[in-house]
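Why should sequence recovery work at all? Because a backbone constrains its sequence more than one might expect. Tight turns favour small or flexible residues, buried strands favour hydrophobic ones, and helices have their own preferences. The token representation captures these environments compactly. In the example below, the structure is given first.
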């Protein structure tokens, strides 16, 4: 599972794998130019290209790390592309000018092409990441459904077929093999004919799509799911034998089929040829696992969304339980101070309002910065120190290398509240509270150790809520340890963000 998780993070967060795929494609295409296309040559190309481009792969892999070195984005991007361009120029110069013989066992023009396309891919990825959210059509593509995607694909394929046919129309009309090349001059000269052929080929493809559509949107969801396999078989046979003669007749009388019989699967003028029915039957059979698989993914996605909504609802309820708990403790403290007519009452009211502002507004957020959360904890401790009667030995140690680290709000305060409620407040003499905080790029560590009285060792709702929130927010990413020893309570929380 860890391997799959690491692979998932690599594919989602890194761009370097795109360049790895690109080098594999380049290695494969170079082999296609040989008279003998041997796997040994393919493997040699892979080793050679990966060796040549390893510095640039290293740069791609650690690009996110380097971004912290410069606050100026323009300088960073200029350096990123500049380093790549300089390196590629150097290796190509070395390959062509060293001792008048190539340095690498790779044709010079191949290395030049691979280098040029490397830069183009790097620029293309950069531009795509900047502008992908700014165009409405890009967002719409994400939500295009399967039927529209299939129709669009068939339209493009039909256009390609029309380009090939019109580029070698003479051979086509003689029923010969058409050259696999496109002559755009001929296409422009015969543009109306090109559009006509495109439309007719597309109609032929849509005839096949018609049977897939009926199967996917009526036969499988209605007959198969609701009435069973027997009714589905007869419904499918009825669909085939009613509609395939009708579709075949339409295709038979299209002008392109009159020129060369290619629009019917049987490639003749006989609509009732068994091959035509067999192709339709094949479309129906092949579409069954496709439709069932897509339905499964759709249902699974709906289940995941429901689970996510339930988790979000549960988190909201847990937060609502935390806030009244905090209000109750703090207002109790303020009430006691007002009875004693303390001069610090107004100061406490002001600090309380700041704390409440954080709880009410920032507590709604999914994430807050570590700096905000720690400021909240320090304000809370300051408020508690004002009202305490006994001496408190307080020490807070911070070792934070990543100031931009974010985490869920109101997690850490529960451990501090617990320290005051069950340890410091009931202490007969002096009490201590030591907080140790460490944070780097991927890991956060929080330790709270305090005076502990055995008779007050009950765990309240706060710790139970904390455990549940951690299970929901950071599954298999956190460790919470609660240790009681020598009249001391130690709470340790570690979260791994990698």
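From this structural description, the recovered sequence reads:
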């Amino acid at each position: 599972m860890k391997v799959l998780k690491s692979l998932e993070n690599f594919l989602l967060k890194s761009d370097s794998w795109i360049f790895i795929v690109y080098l594999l494609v380049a290695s494969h295409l170079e082999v296609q130019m040989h008279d003998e296309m041997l796997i040994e040559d393919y493997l040699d190309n892979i080793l050679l290209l990966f060796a040549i481009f390893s510095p640039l792969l290293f740069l791609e892999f650690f690009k996110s790390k380097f971004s912290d070195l410069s606050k100026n984005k323009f300088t960073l991007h200029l350096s990123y592309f500049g380093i790549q361009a300089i390196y590629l120029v150097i290796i190509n110069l070395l390959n062509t000018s060293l001792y008048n013989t190539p340095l690498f066992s790779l044709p010079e023009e191949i290395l030049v092409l691979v280098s040029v396309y490397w830069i183009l891919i790097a620029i293309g990825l950069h531009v795509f990441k900047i502008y992908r959210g700014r165009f409405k059509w890009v967002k719409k593509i994400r939500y295009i459904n399967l039927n529209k995607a299939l129709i669009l694909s068939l339209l493009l394929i039909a256009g390609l077929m029309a380009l090939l046919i019109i580029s070698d129309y003479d051979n086509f009309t003689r029923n010969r093999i058409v050259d696999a090349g496109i002559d755009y001059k001929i296409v422009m000269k015969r543009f109306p004919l090109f559009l006509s052929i495109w439309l007719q080929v597309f109609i032929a493809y849509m005839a096949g799509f018609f049977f897939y559509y009926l199967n996917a949107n009526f036969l499988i969801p209605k007959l198969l799911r609701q009435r069973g396999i027997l009714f589905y078989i007869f419904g499918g046979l009825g669909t085939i034998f009613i509609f395939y003669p009708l579709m075949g007749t339409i295709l038979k009388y299209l002008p392109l089929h009159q020129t060369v019989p290619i629009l019917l699967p049987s490639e003749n003028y006989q609509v009732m040829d068994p091959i035509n029915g067999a192709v339709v039957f094949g479309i129906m059979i092949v579409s069954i696992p496709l439709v069932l698989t897509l339905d499964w993914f759709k249902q699974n996605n709906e289940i995941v969304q429901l689970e996510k909504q339930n988790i979000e609802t549960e988190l909201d309820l847990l937060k609502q339980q935390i806030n009244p708990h905090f209000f109750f403790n703090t207002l109790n403290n303020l009430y006691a101070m007002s009875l004693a007519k303390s001069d610090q009452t107004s100061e406490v009211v002001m600090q309380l309002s700041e704390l409440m502002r954080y709880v009410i507004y920032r507590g709604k957020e999914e994430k807050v910065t570590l700096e905000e959360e720690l400021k909240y904890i320090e304000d809370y401790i300051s408020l508690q120190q004002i009202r305490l009667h006994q001496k408190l030995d307080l020490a807070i140690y911070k070792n934070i290398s990543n100031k931009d680290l974010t985490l869920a709000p109101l997690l850490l305060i529960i451990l501090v509240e617990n320290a005051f409620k069950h340890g410091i407040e009931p202490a007969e003499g002096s009490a201590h509270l030591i907080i140790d905080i460490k944070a780097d790029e991927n890991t956060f560590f929080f330790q709270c150790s305090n005076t502990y009285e055995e008779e007050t060792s009950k765990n309240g709702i706060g710790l139970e809520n904390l455990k549940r929130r951690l299970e929901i927010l950071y599954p298999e990413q956190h460790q919470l340890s609660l240790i009681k020893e020598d009249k001391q309570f130690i709470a340790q929380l570690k979260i791994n963000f990698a």
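A few observations help interpret the result. The beta strands are 368-369, 392-400, 406-407, 431-439, 443-451, 478-485, 488-496.
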